[in-house]
Specification:
Elements (H helix, E strand, L loop, with lengths): L2 H5 L1 E2 L26 H5 L11 H14 L4 E8 L5 E7 L13 E2 L5 E6 L7 H14 L6 H9 L1 E5 L4 H6 L32 H13 L3 E8 L2 E6 L20 H12 L3 H4 L8 E3 L10 H9 L2 E8 L9 H21 L1 E7 L5 E9 L3 E9 L4 E6 L4 E10 L7 E9 L4 E7 L17 E2 L8 E2 L36 H17 L6 H16 L2 H15 L14
Parallel strand pairs: 5-6, 5-7, 7-10, 8-9, 11-17
Antiparallel strand pairs: 1-4, 2-3, 3-6, 8-10, 11-14, 12-13, 12-15, 15-16, 18-19
The chain binds zinc ion (ZN).
Zinc ion (ZN) binds next to loops.
Keywords: Carboxypeptidase, Hydrolase, Membrane, Protease, Signal, Transmembrane, Transmembrane helix
Pfam families: Peptidase_M14
GO cellular component, one term: extracellular space
């Protein structure tokens, strides 16, 4: 079975719960028909408590029973003490969830993952996720804003990565290990992100799960406590320093700052926290963390992973839960919108075995890119870029049977608020190769609320107007310009770097099941390097290091959130 297929599908072995007959009474909150914040806040006091692990199990099973067409509950593994690690997946995308069947079909459908309670003594995010899940699965699923999210992709909710730590009220798991220092670290292990096999069961479970989700996983957000800030990669400092603050922005720094801002914009408390005046911080500029889940998911899976520190005080009093839900509710939805409802989805298809493709989107404020290597003939891959509004040039660059001449299919799209531009780029047809520039890609366009894509550009570059979606009030008017089939000389430096990486990569990979993502990272880094961005970042890091920006340590939060 192809790697991509196995990764894009949650296997039956982890999705056993479709057949679990839960006889215990479901948590009192699960049957609520939540349609508004006011209604949410009006409910009974027992709702505003930290629900136990038993209640968690009953809750997710109850959610699936209540909405089997859009909610699926399953476990991704067990904790050190043998407790189930439950995930509830919610979507209205047709065909993803099959009621009564254990597997989900996730191929090509963008997904987002909230992870709560990684530190056992930080239960706030976990509890707020219950309220979010109720709304997604129950009444509010019909609300236009929620409908847009669920029609755009899949929301995965891992309420507690550390149920043992929750029971023990400890930071670490039952073995006393801090799970957020337990993942392969790119800096400490010189880029080798292969699991050692000595990770804690909770860490291994989420690593395997994320690998299964693969490129469908657009992003993830880890919910912590102990500070009030949105944190984003990289958490590790290039120097490996454990104490000194150093800037180490990722190549996607502009994208991460935009995503963080989406959360901050609708969270008043984050906007007036004197400790973090902007409400956000790049991890290593706060305090360096190595072996954390955030950097691991970003580098290994390619998921745009962020962290929200939800409250200065850990394990806040239950009486304040309504206030916290009121504070964070809009932000938690804003993230779902930013990651799933808005942006650019690019599908592409390999015409021959062994093709490698770099997909890029460049706008005025940022550029993003992903690489996919060694595709099977006929294999279709989809990548979603959760980018801000604006005009973008999107390109797929094929490194096929003639590695000296990668071919380009490109288009221009405009991203509108809370809308998604979807397009398909196909490798140029043989007749178009090598000749003068010919349009050879084709572009499909859809939005989150439509039933499916409509063909608006054809393989020979002509517009086919009858395929244009009917315009509705306030709807998008995308500019499209199919210009595939050309090989640009300006791509030469990138091509050379990419090819060098293609040559080097075989020796540098060992584990076949993890091979593709490693090599994708390599090819991506080469892509960015050739663009000069990495050079700029390196210079910036050197300058900042020279300035010794490590001021007085922040004692409260260091290593503890
Ligand atoms: Zn934490």
């Amino acid at each position: 079975m192809g790697v991509s297929r196995s990764r894009a599908r949650v296997a039956a072995s982890v999705a056993v719960v479709a057949f679990i007959a839960a006889s215990a009474s479901v948590s009192g909150a699960s049957a609520l028909n939540v349609t508004s914040l006011e209604e949410t806040l009006s409910h009974s006091p027992e709702r505003w408590t930290y629900w136990s692990n038993t209640q968690l199990t009953e809750f997710v099973q109850g959610m699936e029973r209540g909405s089997p067409d859009r909610c699926k509950a399953y476990t991704i593994g067990e904790s050190a003490m043998g407790q189930s690690l439950w995930v509830l997946s919610v979507t209205k995308v047709p065909g993803v969830i099959k009621p009564g069947r254990p597997e989900m079909s996730l191929e090509g459908v963008p997904a987002f993952l909230y992870v709560g309670n990684m530190h056992g003594d930080e239960p706030l995010g976990r509890q707020l996720m219950f309220y979010l899940a109720e709304e997604l699965c129950a009444g509010a699923a019909e609300e236009p804003a929620v409908d847009r999210i669920l029609s755009s992709g899949v929301v995965h909710l891992l309420f507690s990565l550390n149920p043992d730590g929750f029971d023990l009220k400890t930071r670490g798991n039952a073995n006393g290990v801090d799970l957020n220092r337990n993942f392969p670290d790119a800096i400490k292990r010189k880029g080798n992100l292969t699991l050692l096999g000595t990770e804690e069961p909770e860490s291994e479970a989420i690593a395997r799960y994320a690998a299964q989700l693969g490129t469908t996983l657009v992003g993830a957000t880890l919910l912590h406590e102990g500070a009030l800030v949105v944190n984003y990669p990289m958490d590790g400092a290039v120097s490996g320093s454990k104490v000194r603050r150093e800037a180490n922005p990722s190549v996607d720094d502009a994208l991460f700052r935009y995503l963080a801002q989406r959360y901050i914009d609708v969270q008043p408390e984050l906007q007036r926290n004197p400790e973090f005046p902007t409400g956000k911080v790049q991890g290593s500029m706060w305090y360096p963390v190595y072996g954390g889940l955030q950097d691991y998911l970003y580098l290994e899976i390619g998921a745009y992973c962020t962290t929200v520190e939800m409250n200065d005080q850990k394990w806040p009093d239950e009486v304040d839960l309504p206030r916290f839900w009121k504070q964070h509710r809009a932000s938690m939805y804003a993230f779902l919108d930013a990651y799933l409802s808005q942006g650019i989805t690019v599908r592409f298809r390999a015409n021959e075995p062994g093709a490698s493709v770099v997909v890029k989107a460049a706008g005025a404020s940022l550029q993003v890119a992903r690489a996919f290597l060694d595709l099977e003939a006929g294999e279709e891959v989809s990548v979603h870029f959760p980018v801000p509004t604006g005009a973008y040039k999107v390109a797929a660059e094929w490194h096929g049977d003639d590695p000296q001449h990668p071919e380009l299919a490109a288009a221009e799209v405009e991203v509108r608020p809370d809308a998604r531009a979807s397009l398909t780029l196909a490798r140029p047809l043989p007749a178009a190769r090598g000749g003068p520039m010919r349009a050879a890609g084709f572009v499909e366009l859809s939005d989150a609320s439509s039933s499916g894509p409509s063909l608006v550009g054809t393989a020979n570059g002509e517009r086919r107007e009858e395929g244009v979606p009917p315009s509705r009030p306030g709807e998008r008017n995308y500019r499209l310009n199919v210009q595939g089939g050309m090989t640009s000389d300006r791509q030469q430096p990138l091509r050379d770097a990419v090819l060098q990486n293609l040559k080097n990569r075989v020796e540098s990979t060992h584990n076949a099941s993890w091979k593709r993502s490693h090599r994708a990272q390599e090819i991506l880094h080469a892509s960015y390097f050739s663009s000069g961005l990495m050079v700029f970042l390196f210079v910036a890091i050197v300058v900042l290091a020279a300035c010794r920006v490590d001021k007085t340590p922040r004692t409260r939060a260091r290593g503890l959130v």
